[in-house]
Structure formats: C-alpha cells, structure tokens
C-alpha cells in the first residue's frame, strides 16, 4: 500500500533545474534510502516532500489527498544540520516542539517521555543539549520529528557528520523505527543504505536513475562472473576452460581467474565437473555479484 506519491516533481532555481521530473511512490512500512552524489538534488527533493519548499511543477499526494491539508501534517523531518537550543534540556526541547505541534503541555510531556525512552535518552532528559554528543543530538532530532505522530519520517543525511559510535547508534535506531514506521532517508554512505533500507531511489543531476527493492536491483545488475583460484595453477587451464560452452571470457585477476559466463547455474555445474575430472586443487570458487557501490558508480557515470 502506498503512503505517498510524488508525481513529476520539478524544482527550478534561477533557471537551473535542480530536481527534474521525479515520479515515485513510497510504500507503507518500508525504509527507503535516497542515494546520489553531492549536488544530485537529494536535499531539495526531501524539502519538497516535507513541505518546506514548493515544487515548480508536479505534486505530492498522501492518502490519495493532494494538499487538502498542510503537507507537514503527514511528515516528521530531520534536516541534515539540526539546530537546537543548547541551554534547554532534552525534555524541555521536546515539550517545546510538542506545543508547537498544538499538543497540550501535559500531552507534550507524556509524549516527550515516551520518545526519549524510545531513542534511549530517558536517562539524559535533564541534561543540557549542549552537553549531548553528536549521536545523542541526532537521536533527539529523530525524537522531535516523531512528536506529532507523522505517517512518514524524513531524515536528511542523519549519520554523515557522526563518529563511528554515533553512526552506529542512529543506524540501530532507524532499524528499530522501521518496524513500525515508513522512513525515507538520504545518504551517500552506501553501506548504510544496504544495511537498513528495503528500497532505494538513486538520483543524479536531479533525475531518478534507479528505484526499487535492493534485492531486485542487485538481481538486475548480476555480473555473471565466477572467480576461481587454485593452490598450484594447472597447466593449460585457460585452454581447457575455454572449451566449456557456458564460458564467455576468461581474465587473469589477482592470483586466480575471473570467468564471465552466459548462465551462472549452468557454468557452475560445468566448471566443477571439469575441475573434478582434471583433479585440479581448487582453493576458491566464488560467484561475484555487484555491490550497491558498483551499481551506484555505474549508474552515475554512464
């Protein structure tokens, strides 16, 4: 079920098209990574989806409604560089945010405590925000994005400025949140996208290059390459392997051979049969697959 649809979203600043005719949907309960190099249009896209800037063209729909309410009613948003009142405590800040979202002070306090516990800041709620670490501030920022019970949580580069400990804290929180929420987050750290997201949207120069489930995109980009290594390189191995009808190309790579094949399953059986019949001492047999980084680089450089 779709929670949000972006239809032909375009944003032009001073005759420069930053976002160019984007159309995609976000499915309920999914965690989606918005990927792209610097300048791809990620932040502008998120700010349109969050209702902070209006598209030059196109529209956004939530629950099959097109702007029947302020779009921010549906969205919780964490900017890349959140700003806090450092003299406030974590609890005071969330109560303040809750009242801005038209909660009563009592309701805001109850909600603040619930969220502070969720983001593991319950023991630090009376600490001044100025004393928080970077990871603690990002988790507090995620809590403020949840104060009005949004349908969609949008996080702009939530881990880009954090040290390894803070990054791990935020990724673990995203992993927990995605059990009960729909999340869209931008990142240029591809390992993070693979670790916590279900789907990806890949932008470059404002255009949507790829979208879909990560496992489907991996399958579409399968390299059909098998890597073989041997304890002692057999004589005439290349000539023998070239006789196998599933083998398309053989390339020496490191201490072994990268073999491009027509069909992985057929080639696996034929290669193993030849290796066994020849008595070759095989030390490594690996079917190579494209990483998300491989897919990313190929998409943005084509």
TrEMBL record:
Keyword tRNA-binding attributed: no
ABC transporter domain spans which residues?
Answer: 4-230
Report which superkingdom the organism of origin falls in: Bacteria
Q: Which residues form the signal peptide?
A: none
Q: Which InterPro entries match?
A: AAA+_ATPase (IPR003593), ABC_transporter-like_ATP-bd (IPR003439), ABC_transporter-like_CS (IPR017871), DrrA1/2-like_C (IPR025302), P-loop_NTPase (IPR027417)
Q: Would the keyword rRNA processing turn up in this protein's UniProt record?
A: no
Supply the alphabetized keyword list: ATP-binding, Nucleotide-binding, Transport
Which Gene3D superfamilies did the record assign?
A: P-loop containing nucleotide triphosphate hydrolases
| GO terms of molecular function | ATP binding
Give the family, as the similarity comment puts it: Belongs to the ABC transporter superfamily.
Q: What is this protein called?
A: ABC-2 type transport system ATP-binding protein
């Amino acid at each position: 079920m779709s929670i949000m649809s972006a239809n032909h979203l375009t944003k032009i600043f001073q005759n420069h098209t930053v976002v160019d005719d984007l159309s995609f949907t976000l499915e309920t309960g999914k965690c989606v990574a918005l990927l792209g190099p610097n300048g791809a249009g990620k932040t502008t896209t998120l700010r349109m989806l969050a209702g902070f800037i209006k598209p030059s063209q196109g529209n956004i729909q939530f629950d099959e409604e097109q702007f029947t309410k302020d779009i921010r009613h549906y969205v919780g948003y964490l900017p890349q560089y959140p700003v806090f009142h450092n003299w406030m405590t974590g609890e005071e800040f969330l109560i303040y945010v809750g009242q801005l979202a038209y909660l009563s002070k009592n309701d805001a306090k109850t909600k603040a405590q619930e969220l502070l516990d969720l983001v593991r800041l319950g023991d630090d709620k009376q600490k001044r925000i100025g004393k928080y670490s970077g990871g603690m501030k990002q988790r507090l920022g995620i809590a403020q994005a949840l104060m009005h019970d949004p349908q969609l949580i949008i996080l702009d580069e939530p881990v880009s400025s954090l040290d390894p400990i803070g990054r791990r804290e935020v990724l673990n929180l995203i992993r927990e949140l995605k059990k009960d929420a729909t999340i869209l987050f931008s990142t240029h750290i591809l390992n993070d996208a693979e670790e916590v997201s279900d789907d990806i949207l890949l932008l470059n120069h404002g255009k949507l290059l790829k979208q879909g489930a990560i496992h489907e995109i991996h399958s579409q980009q399968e390299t059909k390459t098998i890597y073989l290594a041997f304890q002692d390189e057999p004589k005439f191995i290349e000539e023998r392997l070239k006789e196998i009808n599933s083998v398309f190309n053989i390339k020496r790579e490191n201490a072994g051979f990268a073999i491009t094949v027509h069909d992985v399953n057929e080639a696996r059986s034929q290669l193993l049969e030849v290796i066994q019949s020849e008595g070759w001492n095989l030390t490594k047999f690996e079917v190579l697959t494209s990483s998300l980084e491989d897919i990313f680089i190929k998409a943005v450089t084509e």
